[in-house]
Design brief:
Length: about 220
Amino acid sequence: MSLAIFDLDNTLLSIDSDHAWGEFLLEQGAVDANAYREANERFMADYEAGTLDINAFLAVALKPLADNTPEQLAAWHQQFMVAKIEPHILPRAEELIARHRAQGDTLLIITATNRFITDPIAERLGIDHLIAVEPEVHNGRYTGRVAGTPSFRDGKVTRLHQWLDTQPDTLDDAWFYSDSHNDLPLLEIVDNPVAVDPDDNLRQAARERGWRIMSLRG
């Protein structure tokens, strides 16, 4: 039995759930259309280029959580799951998850998207363990701030080690599946790194290092 770690966006899903949530909020009229759309597209481009300022991004991304009631957010998320997430869950990703589950592996999603967005997605995929950006909560409401280290780039490694300190699992023979060069710090510390439908930078790095490259889309 091993630890099977999965990135979420553009790995198990065919979209980026953080970006899709931003588009969903725009459709609901929940945010200023011009400013939020521009920021959503700019941050997505920065992420793909490897230049994302995670703190600047989270200041914008978490603000709608603070601006709305938990009840409204929960209602929106139900709609979001049906309209934006369910059509983009990859059947071959579910098959991959099922194979690791059948082997008795511990399943873990680690993502730079926040827990509000991703917790229901992990539940839908039947994955009990999730490391995500943690939005700060005070008196039952989101504050718009981050609690702890954001699980992004090297932060994924930090958060994974913190999680392992509380679990019986180790990194011995661990797997990590990801599409993004932003995940190179974590890919480099597991025994079985797998580039899944990788971006150009990760594809090149995987070829140079002799890592497995696979597709969950075709």
